[in-house]
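Annex B. Sample input.
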Amino acid sequence: MNGKIVVVLTIFIYFNAHASLHHFSFDGQVTAVNENENSTLGIVGIGDIFSGSFSYADVSDTEPLVGLGEYHQNTTIKMVLGNNTVEHNGFTYIRIWDDLPAYDSFTFGLDDATANNWMIYSLGFTLTDNSQSVYINDSLPSSFDVSDFDSLEFDFIGYRQSTGDQFEIRMEIQDISPIPE
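Annex B, continued. Sample output.
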């Protein structure tokens, strides 16, 4: 009997782990270059295009407060801006706000991490819906429609480890699309 339970549990875990991974691509434009010390990112200007991808799994919500979903996990985010590519595989936070405090939002990002030759204070984005109509609960979404959001902010803030040159770039996401498996 115990052998059957182990087999059933193993099959459940296998299918659950593989069925719940979500992959997305994104692109957008630079909206502000607040700092680019010694042109550490090269020539970056307002209107420049950036792109990338991110993924996450359906994991349990760690926040008991109704309307706030916290989904911390090891996952990936990759961003390309000009000649710069930043890729992070590790701890990432995801937050879903449903009607708290007065809006709906989705935040995906990392703070205080290293990736390639970067020390990153902030890399990620927040999508905000002031009409509070995009989410009906604080569960992880399986898709995004950028037209549902009033604000689509993406931040890249930190410094290059080899030189210490600092940067702060603000961007706006224009599209998020699922990547088929």
